[in-house]
Design a protein that fits this description.
The structure is a homodimer of 675-residue chains. Chain A has 24 helices and 19 strands. Chain A is of the alpha/beta class and 675 residues long.
Chain lengths: 675, 675
């Protein structure tokens, strides 16, 4: 926290009782009552578990104790919890009736009661008990000398059954430890589905023992062994998370076809299939009329399915641009002969051959919305992803799916890779508005999924692109649909973001690593100040339509230290809005404070850049901002007339594409101040 | 970097050529010449490999490109290097005559020549080539707008063959990703032996398929599967690092005996063996007269040996306090019958039974120095660890071992867990001084090993306890014994420490995580300032003789954010020393600057503590320091007479044990100023 002038600094010192709106819970529980009592923590705090839970709840309770101890430094006497009924007098009692089946059909409800002497968790399943433990973690408060839980009564359950996060392993491979810490983050936010996008044009990431060529030729050395996959699935299961694997077919096939070109649809013999090193939609597509295609997929499914207990298997099916199919005479002839009018029909023919291959392993097919055609099996779950970027109404596939008898999951509006605001994700609801659904239809909207497409993320930056925004999405999927207040969400999200660090997420700590590298270790304050008002180019702009970044290009640049929801921009924009209405002194002071900070920032960046070439790309923006800021300060402080030409010039430059790949999130506010 | 007053701030802006003493290489090469030319980097920079190397050099070269790209943002065109002779015109040519055998007997030499148009690496083996790549990484410089390598000619080789790091997995388990990033750190510092201490009183960490009870009953759920071990060994091999496993016997046996109490030496049937949750020397010892002991160990070795290609197997053998043996009549009788006078003799009997078990797997025994008795096989490598803390001359076992025909490795003086200064480690040399060794005897001193005992480290803090001090130890083990200048080492170590971040080490970034937690997210500057003048209690003081911390106690406290070699204390102490000699104005200004900072720091800590109980333990120290500082400032600035009684009172309090478990590293300087 920067040291703010006195008018902005306040220190919250209070021994008063906590009120409900001071709780930083996320997702917000369905029902919560708070009273004036507190439960004080000391080193004799103990946990006891009763009932018939899966042993995973012992691990969860042990980890809870460790997290609590790390936050309080109380040196609890209790070490490892390994069985039920060990301490019947313990002040935290966790009662689970039975083991829960990880997935989307289980009872995840819980009751949490905190009283002066006792804390009680009651849950039908251990899944609900683990959710209760996470809520309890979030309830920890202190009064300066002691730690305590406020006395609450919570009854909670999820609104949607499918509360997911997808991670794309193909564009940038994420090692196991990255996955595990994000599973921890998901569990902390009561999310229960991990969609593992394991294959794409840029890489094949699964060991297939019968077909070692896939990893030998199409993984660039980065893939998971089957042991690693089992380990991750087990880890997820212990956190109450179901893992849904995806092998994206028939498009997105550059990797598969690098290993097995004979099942590709390309007829041009001059270029070979190769693992792609760029983003975008690629042409390589599996040949749907070649029996070898189905043989290979069948053998792959035979090895992959047993690794995943989940009853769902995602077959992808998106963005098949049909180019290779259209220019393949055999395929064209096949379409004619079999009355498959369009490529969509041919793809449905293809998909329907996969359905029994997976069904024999107990798997129900799921796919991106393009699989939804007239003849596609109603058992398939439709993954709705398209919206305005694809020229369609946001999530219109949800309505179509539901009306046509399909279950569906919404990802449009939860594309966290696009660097959009947390507000946009938070207000995006899987249940379409202004549509009449019957109860049966409503039930087909299973939930939603945040999608971490990894064209522009590495293990160093991925946590910062997932968190904390995905916590807000988690609330949208769990909490009541009346929980929509943006200010409350922002306030709570700030605290939740900090708490996510303690479970190992690197979304906060890695920023300084990037800045230290950029600054060539000379000092990062100026750069850090700048990241707080810049946001990476949104949607697909940063990658210049897939042209700028190779999959191995550096992602340790200024844009990688920036994020959506630039925090100082948020405050500055609010102050400017207030000021333009009220012209009040407090807001004016805040505005001047920031402007002066940015003038200093520019001076410092210029000095440091002499020994740090990576600072160069941000210098023009910093200078343009400083020039405008000087004018605005003089005007606000001394009523000096604005040099509007100079300001407009610099605003124009700020509006052009820069090589730092970031936009100035205070741009509109500067414009308004300069009018 | 804090913003220092003008007299302390200097900006190094130079287009002048780099001089040798401006290079930040570590370990310092055997021979290096520098000239005035430079090799400029651009996006067409390419690497070509020739010769007959192991494919690991392709990976190393690819990673080198990625690291370079991340530091320069140049967007290299070259992606993955997968074979030799791909770009004969490339400006970086790496020539390896042959594959190197990972271990301590291989040629690790290299020549590195940087010219204006070309960089050439020549090495007998790919191991030498990979060392050269690390040196080249360290040579990167910039002139504000461009990146370049200065023109150098380097001929380099290691002084010692055994340059190791040991990590203790038993006291605090470290997951695979922690191990891998530390292997990366080792490779960056040209270290080649990873000693894996896999078993101790506090846990058994290896999957043994024939004896699942070991992990089921004695691991608290934390252990490595054999697949994971193979993966780590493979990873290390690709970095030129040999992994030496250790199963510590016959003492340190609480874990083994929890699973197999029948082979313990205890005759008291009232207490059961259990996995220990405390530090220290424990009684549980294997029964050396029970044939089942040897059967179990033999079966364990049969499973573990094949996982490790290394020809060395460490059997521990330290700190057998003999208590259980002394009170076991059967064992006493056995000693009498077999003329084994002392417990040392009995232990030698025990060790000599292990030798053939390991030899049949091609393993040579290594053990802590206590195994060195008259009848111990000369093939055993003696690991010298005892010194003044054990009431002996530092590393005296080295001399004894060498004179008695044993090969030996030194760890005394490299115990990085004791929080001693980097200077003490740096000046500690495996080759004893003032002893006459023949050439053959000298050759028996294989090298040294930093030992990361993990009683007080977790995955969150372990990197900060290993790095950067181990880099200085790496230099001691690689470079010429004339490379001993402390000032040069400190200067280079500062830069090397930053560079270690880019390969994934968390020694810098995790400190702020700890401080944020302590500060309850209110702002960490004051705490950070305080960590820069405090050091954790040294040697075994922090743990209060093993009494204070359970193995599951929190290590997220102020002492865990502190480290050896507190940086501001280093500067302040130097300034005070200069001032006391010269009474110069510059030093006086620096002293006053720091004192005022600490007065402010105390005020801020008091304010923040109102919402952060974890700050409480440091408040007394901060106040005592502030009281003294106020007096000193008034005296230095205004010549006000010192209130010596008040100062002495507070110095006395500062000297007492505090609950924050840290000592004030500027204590002596304050004393001197107050005289």
């Amino acid at each position: 926290m920067r040291y703010l002038p006195a008018f902005l600094l306040f220190v919250f010192v209070s021994n008063a009782q906590i009120k409900k709106d001071q709780l930083n819970l996320m997702p917000w529980p369905q029902k919560i009552e708070i009273s004036n009592a507190v439960f004080l923590l000391n080193k004799d705090f103990k946990v006891n578990i009763t009932g018939n839970p899966n042993p995973r709840v012992f691990k969860a309770a042990t980890q809870f104790l460790r997290r609590l101890d790390q936050r309080t430094g109380l040196f609890f006497n209790q070490g490892f919890i390994t069985k039920t009924n060990e301490f019947p007098e313990a002040n935290l009692q966790i009662n689970c009736l039975r083991e829960g089946k990880v997935g989307i059909t289980e009872d995840e409800s819980y009751q949490l009661a905190v009283n002066t002497n006792k804390i009680t968790i009651n849950a039908t399943t251990d899944l609900g008990a683990m959710h209760a433990i996470e809520t309890l973690c979030q309830l920890l408060h202190n009064n300066g000398t002691q730690f305590y839980f406020p006395s609450v009564e919570i009854n909670d359950n999820s609104r949607f059954a499918w509360r997911g996060l997808m991670i794309d392993e193909a564009r940038h491979f994420q090692p196991v430890d990255v996955i595990k810490r994000n599973l921890d983050g998901m569990a902390a936010m009561k999310m229960n589905v991990f969609h593992w996008h394991l294959v794409d044009d840029q890489g094949w990431r699964i060991e297939i023992k019968k077909h070692p060529k896939l990893t030998e030729l199409a993984s660039n050395g980065s893939f998971y062994t089957q042991e690693e996959i089992k380990d991750v699935v087990q880890y997820a299961n212990e956190k109450g998370i179901m893992v849904v694997p995806e092998i994206d077919v028939p498009g997105h096939a550059s990797a598969i076809l690098t290993a097995y070109p004979e099942i590709g649809s390309k007829t041009d013999n001059q270029t070979a299939y190769s693992v792609s090193v760029k983003s975008g939609i690629h042409n390589p597509t599996l040949d749907p009329v070649n029996p070898k295609t189905y043989q290979l997929l069948s053998e792959i499914f035979d090895e992959v399915c047993p690794l995943f207990p989940s009853p769902y298997f995602h077959i992808g099916g998106d963005e098949n641009n049909g180019k290779e199919w259209d220019s393949n005479p055999k395929i064209q002839e096949f379409k004619k002969k079999n009355h498959l009018k369009t490529n969509h029909d041919l793809q449905t023919y293809f998909n329907m051959k996969l359905v029994p291959m997976l069904k024999k392993h107990g798997k129900q097919v799921m796919g991106w919305e393009e699989i939804m055609t007239q003849d596609m099996s109603k058992e398939a779950i439709i993954h709705a992803w398209r919206g305005v970027n694809e020229g369609m109404k946001p999530g219109e596939a949800v309505v179509k799916a539901v009306k046509n008898g399909y279950q569906t999951v919404l990802s449009n509006g939860y594309y966290i890779d696009l660097m959009l605001s947390v507000d946009s994700h938070y207000l995006n609801d899987p249940m379409p508005k202004n549509v009449d659904f019957t109860a049966a239809e409503k039930a087909r909207v299973l939930g939603g999924e945040a999608t971490m497409w990894s064209e522009l993320v590495t293990p160093l930056t991925i946590d910062s692109r997932i968190w904390p925004r995905t916590a807000a999405i988690a609330e949208r999927l769990w909490s009541n649909d009346t929980v929509t207040n943006l200010e409350s969400m922002h306030k709570r999200l700030k605290k939740i973001s900090f708490r996510l660090e303690e479970i190992g997420l690197t979304h906060i700590r890695n920023k300084e690593v990037i800045l230290r590298n950029i600054a060539n270790y000379q000092g990062t304050k100026a750069l850090n100040d700048f990241t707080k008002i810049c946001e990476p180019y949104k949607v697909y702009k940063r990658n210049g339509g897939g042209k700028k970044y190779f999959m191995f290009s550096p992602l340790t640049l200024f844009a990688d230290a920036c994020n959506a929801d630039a925090p100082d921009a948020y405050e500055f924009n609010k102050a400017v809005n207030r000021y333009l209405i009220d012209k009040d002194e407090l807001s004016q002071s805040e505005i001047i404070y920031y402007l002066k900070q940015w003038i200093n920032m520019n001076d410092e960046l210029i000095v440091f850049s002499k020994n740090a070439p990576l600072i160069q790309p941000v210098l023009p923006m910093a200078q343009q901002l400083s020039t405008i800021a000087v004018e605005l300060v003089a005007n606000l402080e001394n009523k000096k007339a604005l040099n509007k030409t100079l300001i407009q010039e610099n605003l124009k430059l700020l509006n052009e594409r820069n090589s730092a790949d970031v936009e100035l999130a205070i741009y509109e506010s500067l414009k308004k101040l300069a009018e």
